[in-house]
Amino acid sequence: MGKKLSLEDQPWCIDKATGKLVINKGVENVCIDKSTICYIDGFHSKLYYRGYSIEELAQKSTYEEVVYLLLYDKLPNKRELTDFSGWMSEERDIPREIDELLCRMPRDVEPMEVLRTATSYLGNLDPGRHDTSRDGMFRKTIRLVAKIPTIIAHWHRIRNNQPVVDPDPRLAHAENFLYMMHCEKPDQLSAKAMDVSFILLAEHEMNASAFTAVVIASTLSDYYSAIVGAIGALRGPLHGYANVAAMRQFEEIGSPDNVEKWYKENILTGKKRVMGAGHRVYKTYDPRAKIFRDYARQFADKVGGKVKDFYEIASKLEDFVMRELCEARNICTNCDFWSGIVYYAMNIPIDLYCTLFVASRTIGWSAHILEYIADNRIIRPRLYYDGEIDKEYIPIEKR
Predict the structure, then answer these.
(1) N or C: where does the chain have the smaller number of CB atoms within 10 Å of the terminal CB?
(2) Per residue in 301-317, pLDDT tens?
């Protein structure tokens, strides 16, 4: 038998004020740094990028402008935005080797895993991969933000045995993505909804994927390793994959008439949880969900059919959530609950939804990497050891 350590043996786990053990499971509400990138007021449904409200950015801005804002900490003037948008447009093409890699990937590989692999390989081909300067990081960020939508669109067409569609430099970032997906220019509503979607998901403070990126970057590892790590974190169903799970949930319900029965049999009994509901930070309604819901309603009115069915299913299910879960337990619907219906209306396959999160969020991850390493300190938390020490080693012959 060994001996147990006392609390005093591990002073880093002691609250100095109370003298008691403190464990922040999930690193909940632990501030690791100061930041000027994003502010979330989870009690009043507020989200800000560099001080600008998400509602105002969604209404008045474009994704290119938001990328500039997050990267350079200011809104661009007209000339700066024109030059910056042109730079992003010039970087959309992906190397031939990436398309060859996509062609060799098995068609049944999960899209997030395809994107993770392609992003990692792209790092090997980046002409500035050895440039660790701050300007070099900025250039890599622009290249990757511009290229990820192309990778997603090309994989979509390759796995469906369709010819890939090259980027159109005359189109805006979000509009071009839909063009590459479907080989036709999108209608006005779709182009605007896709652009707003990219804005809404561009940044969200120190979530699991952003933290992963920053942890990797804090070791002074390379930029692409940090982004690939973030993609891996986002892939989980408790993070970015929740929008896929929410749509599968609506498919399972099947009809607006089935919502109440499904809710009682699955949620009230504890068999399942509502996917797209609940958030670590938001204790009220997610402000992004409100905007996604409005676009889902517009598509339901315009397209009808299954889009309208999904919208009505989601609306009825949300009524139960807001009435029974939000008021009692602060579990409210979030952006993942509604975003999938918007993507579905634009004929984007459900299993690609999480990759759209990557396409949006790469700029947020990059902004946090740049901010953190500007005054870097390797991230190294501690654990409270709850086992024994000084155990007697027994030779294998006597065990």
Answers:
(1) C
(2) 999 999 999 999 999 99
